[in-house]
Amino acid sequence: MRAVVVGAGMSGLVAGRQLVDAGVAVTIVDKGRSPGGRMATRRIGGATLDHGAQFFTVRTPAFQRQVDRWLERGLVDVWTHGCGGHDGHPRYVATAGMNSLAKDLAIGLDVQCSTMAFSVRAAPPTEGAPRWQVVIDDGSIRAADAVVVTTPLPQAFSLLVDAGIELDEQLLRTDYDRTIALLARLDRSPGIAPPGGLQSPTDDIGFVADNQAKGISDVPALTLHASAQWSDEHWERDVDELHALLLELARPLLGSAEVVESQVKKWRFATPRSSWPDPCWTSADRSIVLAGDAFDGPRLEAAHNSGLAAAHALVG
After folding, report:
1. Tell me: the pLDDT tens digits for 57-91?
2. What phi and psi, each to the nearest 5 degrees, are found at residue 241?
3. How many Å apart are CA 53 and CA 36, to the nearest integer?
4. Cα gap 266→225, rounded to integer Å
5. 47: which of 144, 166, 209, 221 fits an S-S bond (Cβ 3.0–4.6 Å)?
């Protein structure tokens, strides 16, 4: 059996690993320069900043087993038990930045980055040949008996428009909040009380993280996620204008610190506004599977468990 996984975020990497362990020949393609998706980490002048997912929690045994393996190897640590309140649930962070977990999951897998899937179509009916062709934007083809698509659902539907399969209308209507992020290296620690994270400190700010307080940056560095409403209202603005507005939003949070260097990152599909109740969606013939954090809740844990479910749907 040959499978192609589209997307090298948490769901795609977990699905790929499970399929390989089951004896399936797997190729993972991703348009990004490195695996991870929203498990994204950037380095700016000696600072390390998570600019997608900031932390994760654990609620299910399946994800706990994975996190325990990371804990044993020192790849993750507990940051806090709540930002703005203690709810008893550990917030885990990756000690070398969230992207390091994606790179760990990708070890030994055939992950082809800078490789954007353009469409999924049925292969010509030849006896013994794979059923599907994943067409890459350069015109090359990855042949597969099964395809797992882990991109945001609007992108998944664009990929599958010529596949000739019936897709659920409720999935088609899934929309996502946008997030615009400011990544800033500072000259000193900002004026943020321990643990160094703020959930919605203002109506315009969704989350703020002191990456040094999180334990991932050797020098002071701040990640600011604008709120979904602010991000939507300002999405079409010029990047330079956005940069100035974000610095203005951050100013009251910096205390005596000054910004040394900063960048802007835009996430078009940051958080699903609704989630599919099942951990994945499977076509009638069980050869196409959709998975990701839009299934069973918009969290890193849901993406992990959706990847497991996608692999199980193909190989049992």
Report:
1. 999 999 999 999 999 999 999 999 987 666 778 99
2. -70, -40
3. 10
4. 10
5. 221
